[in-house]
Amino acid sequence: MDWLKSTTKLDNVLGRPDNRVAQALRRAQSEGESLKSFVLAVNLQVPGKDQHSAVFYFASPDPLPTGSLLHRFVNGDDEYRNQRFKIVNRIVKGPWLVRKTVGNYSACLLGKALTCNYHRGANYLEIDVDIGSSAIATAILHLALGCVTSVTIDMGFLVEAQEEEELPERLIGAVRVCQMEMSSAAVVEAAAATTAVVGRGIGLAKVNHHEEED
Predict the structure, then answer these.
(1) What is the value of pTM for the model shown?
(2) In CA terms, which of 10, 74, 81, 204 is 20 to 30 Å from 42?
(3) Contact assessment for residue 130 and residue 114, using Cβ atoms and an 8 Å cutoff
(4) CA-CA distances (angstroms) from residue 143 to 49, 101, 120?
(5) InterPro entries in the record, alphabetically (predicted)?
């Protein structure tokens, strides 16, 4: 997981030249390793005075099975993806108000509830989930962020099965976020206007990791 902060919304994080996961994959492939690996990233974009992104990475060392539900999702169009991309979550620990508002267990088709932007690379798919696109989601998020250091949440991401032959549903991946500190985010600074544009139209950037003082 990457927990990032910037003055602007971070889109297509895996397409950035400074992304640590993309760098590691390129380095491995230059050495003849991980040539068939595929990465799916979910970038939860958190609105606010500073823009935050919680980016979760799920990798497969092998190509996606042709014809599988995940293969169709990755290679489908955005309309198909929006109808299928689902999150399931569970509040493991947290104040009563958060558990009551969010619900201890819930499932949601993110592509229908929020604006999702999909970025397809040669060996990855990134899903940017704009939480700020929904006033209700933003209000719930700000409530949770007010006591985020006391909240533990499990989240799973999957492609929803809508036909009998697509069952059983299988998780793409799952994460547990425990009592996160907002101040622990790595700061991603936007490039200067004179910086050359590289790759997929993403300017060069520098990532500064906070270090604890002695």
Answers:
(1) 0.86
(2) 204
(3) yes
(4) 15, 9, 33
(5) EDR2-like (IPR045096), EDR2_C (IPR009769)
